Amino acid sequence: MSARLYSKVLGFLGYTLQYSCIAHCTFEYVGEFVVCSGPSMEPTITNHDVVFSERLSRHLYRIEKGDIVIAKSPFDPNMNICKRVIGLEGDKVCTSGPSDTFKTHTFVPRGHVWLEGDNLQNSTDSRSYGPVPYGLIRGRVCLKLWPPHSVGTLTESPNAGRILRTE
Amino acid sequence: MSSNPFTLTSPTRHTQVIPLRHEVQVLQDMAQTAGFGRKYVKAFVSGFFIAVPVTVTALDRLAYVARVEGASMQPSLNPQGASSSDVVLLNRWSVRNYEVQRGDIVSVVSPKNPKQKIIKRVIALEGDFIKTLGYKNRYVRVPDGHLWIEGDHHGHSFDSNTFGPVSLGLLHGRASHIIWPPTRWQRIRPCVPPDRRPLFDGRGSEDDGDDVNDDDNTK
C-alpha cells in the first residue's frame, strides 16, 4: 500500500517536473505572452494590450530596425520595457526629440541597440538613458492578441522618419 | 505472476514490444521485483524524450559548466596561462533575483558582443563610489541596477574600466566552484582585492560588505 502511494507521489512529482521544464523551454526559446502597460508605445500598443513575443530571433541575432522588442530595463532587471528598435550597432541615430530645434546625432556602440517608444512625447527610452546592450533584449513582439478588434496587427512606426536607413 | 512474467503483456502488446528486446528484459525483471515496474518503465521511456527539456532547464536555471579562456582573471582562474584552462561551475540559481555580493566572480553577457560571455569579479554594487583604473571618469558612482566588474589581472582585462558599469540584467551566473583540473578543485570564495574596496558603499557604512561576505563563507 505504501509502495503504491510512494509511486503515485513520485509519478506526480515527475510529471510536474517534466511539464515545468517543457514550459520553461517554451517560454525561453519559443515565445511568451506579455501584457503591456503604460503609454510609451501608443498608438501601436495601448495600455493593457496582450501581445505575443517570440524569442527565436533574439537567440539567432535576427533583430532588425523597426522591430518592437521586449527588453529588460537597464536600471531595474525585474522590470521589462517594450520599445521599438530605431538603430542597431554602428547606426547613426537622432538623439533629440521631435520638437527640439537643434538636432543631435550619435552612433550606436558595438553590441548595443537604440530603443525608442512610438509615443515620443511620453516615453522614457534611449534618448534619456542611452543605448541598451543587446543582451537585455528578451524577445520580439510579433502578434497582438488583445483587444479583439486589432488582433494580429502591428502597425508601422508613426515616426518612421526617425529610423535612418544608411545603406 | 512471477512464474510467467509474460502475462503482463497482452498478445498484441507483445508483438509491439518484441523489437526492443532489452525493454522486454527490463519489463520481466521489474515485474518480479515490484508491482509498479511497468509504470516505471513507461515513465522511463517517455522520460527519455523529456530529458532534453529537463537538461536545458537545469542548465538555464540551476547550474552551467563553462571553460574559462584568457588571462584576465589570473591568478584566481587560469593561473598557468594558456597551457591549462579552468572549468568552472556557474551557479545560476543564486542569481535568479540578481543578488550578488562584492567579490563574487560572475559571468555576464558582454555588453560589446552579445554572443560572448565574460567572467569577472564584482568590485562595486549599485550606489557605490569607486575609483576607476583608466576609465574616462576618475571616480564613478555605480548607477542603480548596475555592477562594476573587473578582472583580477589589471591591464590585461577587458572590463568595466573599458566599457563602464554593466546592467544587472546581463548577469548570467555566479562562479561557485572550479571543477577542472581536479588538482584545482575548490570552492570560489568571494574576496575583494584590498585596494579595490569602494570608497564608500551605497548603504553608507565602510565594512558592511565584508561582513556579508564572511557570513556566506560559514554556510
TrEMBL record, chain A:
SUPFAM superfamilies: LexA/Signal peptidase (SSF51306). The active site is at residues 40, 83. Residues 17-96, 102-146 form the Peptidase S26 domain. Keywords: Hydrolase, Membrane, Mitochondrion, Mitochondrion inner membrane, Protease. One of its GO terms (molecular function) is serine-type endopeptidase activity. GO terms for cellular component: mitochondrial inner membrane peptidase complex. It is an enzyme of class 3 (hydrolase). This is Mitochondrial inner membrane protease subunit.
Automatic annotation (TrEMBL), chain B:
This is Mitochondrial inner membrane protease subunit. Heterodimer of 2 subunits, IMMPL1 and IMMPL2. Transmembrane segments: none annotated. It comes from Hemibagrus wyckioides. Residues 194-206 have a biased composition (Basic and acidic residues). GO terms for molecular function: serine-type endopeptidase activity. It is a single-pass membrane protein. GO terms for cellular component: mitochondrial inner membrane peptidase complex. The lineage of its organism: Eukaryota, Metazoa, Chordata, Craniata, Vertebrata.
